[in-house]
Design goal:
- The complex is a heterotetramer, with two copies of chain A and two copies of chain C.
- By secondary structure, chain A is an alpha+beta fold.
- Chain A has one domain: Heat Shock Protein 90, CATH 3.30.565.
- Chain A contains three helices and five strands; from the N terminus they run βααββαββ.
- Chain A has a five-stranded antiparallel beta sheet, with helices on one face.
- In chain A, β2 and β3 form a beta hairpin.
- Chain A is globular.
- By secondary structure, chain C is an alpha/beta fold.
- Chain C contains three helices and seven strands; from the N terminus they run βββαββαβαβ.
- In chain C, α1 runs parallel beside α2.
- The termini of chain C are far apart.
- Classes of the chains: A alpha+beta, C alpha/beta.
- Chains in contact: A-B, A-C, A-D, B-C, B-D, C-D.
- At the A-D interface, α1, α2 and α3 of A face α2 and α3 of D.
- β1 of chain A pairs antiparallel with β1 of chain B.
- The complex binds adenosine-5'-diphosphate (ADP) (2 copies).
- One adenosine-5'-diphosphate binds next to α2 and α3 of chain B.
- The site of one adenosine-5'-diphosphate has 17 residues of chain A, from α2 and α3.
Chain lengths: 142, 142, 126, 126
Amino acid sequence: MNKEINQEMIEVSIPHRAEYVSLIRLTVASIANSMGFDIEDIEDIKVALSEACSNAIMHGGCDVGDNFLVQFMMEKASLTISVSDFGKGYDKNSIQEPKPGELNEGGLGIFIIKSLMDDVHIDTGSSQGTSIKMIKNLREES
Amino acid sequence: MNKEINQEMIEVSIPHRAEYVSLIRLTVASIANSMGFDIEDIEDIKVALSEACSNAIMHGGCDVGDNFLVQFMMEKASLTISVSDFGKGYDKNSIQEPKPGELNEGGLGIFIIKSLMDDVHIDTGSSQGTSIKMIKNLREES
Amino acid sequence: MVVVIEEESTEKLDEYDEGGSLLALTIQKSYNESEEKWILVLEGEVDLYTADKLKEAVNQMLNEKLDDIRILGDRLDYIDSTGLSVFISALKKLQKEEKNIILANIKPSIKKLLNITGLDKIIIIE
Amino acid sequence: MVVVIEEESTEKLDEYDEGGSLLALTIQKSYNESEEKWILVLEGEVDLYTADKLKEAVNQMLNEKLDDIRILGDRLDYIDSTGLSVFISALKKLQKEEKNIILANIKPSIKKLLNITGLDKIIIIE
Ligand SMILES: Nc1ncnc2c1ncn2[C@@H]1O[C@H](COP(=O)(O)OP(=O)(O)O)[C@@H](O)[C@H]1O
Ligand SMILES: Nc1ncnc2c1ncn2[C@@H]1O[C@H](COP(=O)(O)OP(=O)(O)O)[C@@H](O)[C@H]1O
């Protein structure tokens, strides 16, 4: 009966509205906390997930009445988060990394996500939705 | 473009595990707060939703690996919350209300939900899942 | 001869920092000789997840000494029927000895729950 | 002649109590004559929802007087790229007058974000 569960999933579907990003942060902080991530990692995860949600809301091109999907996959040693919108997608090759020393208001989001998470995959194209998957591994206990 | 949205929906799918009920409370507190419910109403909603989630987890008869669904419907004047498990259901007629003055450890959950929320509907049967829908209205501003 | 029990124990199920926002339950129990009561300090949330821990603590107390339990609720943020059930089963044992549960300094929302369930007529609320 | 601007204003987008856990953004700005700097106290979270409010406040300040902005971050819990963008567009205006942004008492997680984005080499961190 009490077989061990190795993977659990929480899924949140939420409107494309800026005011709900803080709710997603609250959710992931609580999930990451209960998994045993430390404060630094939790802050990293909150920022990365917020960036992905902000992108879905700002760039997805969806109606505010439409929802996007955030999935949390909790495993023993890692948390995998996917953010999927069903919007217009984009051409990954057209996106440039921010140049150090240059002041540019835009283009920081994905760069920050990649810096803060251990692994990031983006699934997108110029007429399909975007799905970004990011993984944070629990550090070995020392 | 900026047409007014009268109804928005947030949906959370979550494993049948006791440790996640506090996450659901956190979520609903934040939603109710942003809708303008006062502290007393928020506490009522937290308790009612927890009772429904506890029932899904304890009585639904589902695997801990399975998820149940919590839906939040935000309207201008009310919050409607549905908790649906895909478990074994029950026979509503066999359930008795708690008797005042009698000490009984069980049977308080649904009674509390009905006391704290403005409207409650339960959809269940002895071989279908259970779905409980509860509504809390925003008080008129005075 | 009256058996005097002195005990102080703290059990934490989980602890969350400020950022994490999730509170679990902290239980502190001790027997007060002069008052002849158990003093139970509850901090955090009693729900389906944490109620077992509370049940365990209360059972341990009553097995050691079946006496009044005074619960200090200043920092009890949340309780629902899973927690009330623990009180109710303790009350069944306590009432046989004409002992009771006293709830002190509880939040209005918790008081409301005791009203609704009629427990305010059985438990003493200070 | 130096124009002296004295201003104190508080704008709240939303306020949540302890139970609600959601923090929005509180902005307090004032011009400090002796230091010849704007003092900006940020409390709460700067994200996609609240960044516009910050942008408005900063624009207003710089339109009134293009001078250094000293941000007190003791109670700034969270900021992401939407907030950093506000700083960056302010920096573009400030740099023309050789003025800058000074960030004081910020949390380690925010310092980390400034490192990653290279903003720590442009903004002054105290
Ligand atoms: N979910 C998305 N849907 C459509 N386009 C996206 C999405 N996420 C990112 N993009 C594209 O990638 C670009 C870079 O994103 P990002 O690095 O987050 O910077 P910024 O959001 O500041 O532009 C965006 O400007 C946008 O064109
Ligand atoms: N989601 C559910 N699935 C199956 N049975 C349920 C569900 N919710 C309630 N029940 C049935 O209704 C009864 C009364 O529920 P409730 O009033 O919450 O009290 P308690 O949970 O303490 O028994 C339960 O004992 C159970 O038999």
